[in-house]
Amino acid sequence: MNDQQDKLKQREALENAYDNFVQPYIKQLIEVNPQSLPNIDVAFPGFCCASGWLALTLLYCVWLRSLTKKLTR
């Protein structure tokens, strides 16, 4: 019984440690200076690259499907 009470006390101490020390830092707002961020726009090039690979993959699938239809006839 004493061992179980020790475990409960340890667990309670850990939960209190989280509430007292970790949670305030999580809830704290961090301000970022927008001028310190780089001015590189990566959304458009990334979108173009992903779209190109997707289109290439779809064309390959269509080509492969037409090729297998010709072979099965």
Residue share in helix = over 70%
Q: Cα distance, first to last residue?
A: 78 Å
* SSE string, helices as H and strands as E: HH
> Average pLDDT, to the nearest integer?
83
Radius of gyration: 29 Å
**Largest sheet entry:** none
Describe the structure.
The chain is mainly alpha-helical and 73 residues long. The protein starts with a helix and ends with a helix. It is built from 2 helices and no strands.
Summarize this structure briefly.
The protein is an all-alpha fold. The protein contains two helices and no strands. It has helices spanning 2-27, 43-72.
Features:
77% helix, 73 residues, elongated, mainly alpha
Task: Describe the SSE topology.
Blueprint: H1 2-27, H2 43-72
